[in-house]
């Protein structure tokens, strides 16, 4: 009996100690959870700001390489580092190569959505557009990815600050014509693959290196939906398109998934 009473007393003491320890244990677990989520958020912001992001193609300017509704993973590694929750960007050490697809911040005043095009001219290149093709430093550029003939931009459609070396003269373009031209230092001449439906360097001028933020790596999703669904701010339209793809899987372009660049 004495032994049993001793055991009961010991059990009550252990229970009392456990109950006393409970508030401290809960507080410790809460701190651990907060700390874990802090590190998750920090890693996410670092990855999002310096390594990769997602993008959706809203227009047909890069057809047939990229289609409206293609969802891309973009790599910023070596191209750009952004400060989370700000518009601050720091260009890094990598520079794009000719015919490489790049993503850049818009140069047209008032536009905020990032743009995706193909690099055609590098700094110092002499660019000309004639005979339905691009000529670089006197050599015709071979392009097997374009849709439609390549024509110079109409001067009345120019929208950007057109500057560089035009016709051998370093000056701001007077909108009477821009070819032949020399690509300015630290700038790139870009064009869409769909040459008859692309607002590119023929209309907005060359893209400063500081505006280039990355390059696409992979198509992770492709949905054949209305183009307005992918416009910036079209949240309800986009949600409706995603819901429709869940109900009708045929809207998903399955063969384009996980295509690498």
Task: Report the sheet-strand fraction.
Answer: 25-35%
Uncertain segments of ≥5 residues (pLDDT<50)? Answer: 1-5, 14-21, 41-50, 163-175
CATH C-level class of the domain at 51-217 is Mainly Beta
Provide the helix percentage: 25-40%
CATH superfamily of the domain at 51-217: Umud Fragment, subunit A
Order of helices and strands: HEEEEEEEEEEEEEHEEHE
Beginning-to-end CA distance, first to last residue: 80 Å
CATH architecture of the domain at 51-217: Ribbon
Q: What do we call the CATH topology of the domain at 51-217?
A: Umud Fragment, subunit A
By DSSP, the count of extended strands is 16
| Average of pLDDT | 79
* Integer-rounded radius of gyration: 28 Å
Describe this protein's structure.
The chain has a domain at 51-217: Umud Fragment, subunit A, CATH 2.10.109. It is an alpha+beta fold and 261 residues long. 25% of the residues lie in helices and 26% in strands.
């Amino acid at each position: 009996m004495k032994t049993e009473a001793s055991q009961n007393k010991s059990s009550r003491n252990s229970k009392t100690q456990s109950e006393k320890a409970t508030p401290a244990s809960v507080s410790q677990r809460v701190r651990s959870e907060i700390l874990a989520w802090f590190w998750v958020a920090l890693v996410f912001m670092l990855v999002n700001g310096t390594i990769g992001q997602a993008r959706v193609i809203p227009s047909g300017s890069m057809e047939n390489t990229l289609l409206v509704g293609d969802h891309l993973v973009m790599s910023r590694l070596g191209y750009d580092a952004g400060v989370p929750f700000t518009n601050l960007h720091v260009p890094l050490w990598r520079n794009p190569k000719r015919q490489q697809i790049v993503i850049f911040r818009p140069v047209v005043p008032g536009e905020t959505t990032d743009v995706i095009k193909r690099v055609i001219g590098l700094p110092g290149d002499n660019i000309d557009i004639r005979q339905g093709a691009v000529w670089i430093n006197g050599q015709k550029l071979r392009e097997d990815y374009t849709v439609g003939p390549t024509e110079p931009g109409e001067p009345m459609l120019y929208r950007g600050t057109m500057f560089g070396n035009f016709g051998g003269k370093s000056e701001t373009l007077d909108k009477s014509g821009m070819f032949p031209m020399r690509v300015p230092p630290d700038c790139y001449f870009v064009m869409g693959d769909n040459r008859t439906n692309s607002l590119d360097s023929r209309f907005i001028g060359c893209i400063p290196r500081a505006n280039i933020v990355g390059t696409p790596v992979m198509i992770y999703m492709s949905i054949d939906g209305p183009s307005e669904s992918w416009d910036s701010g079209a949240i309800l339209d986009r949600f409706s398109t995603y819901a429709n793809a869940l109900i009708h899987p045929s809207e998903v372009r399955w063969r384009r998934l996980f295509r690498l660049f």
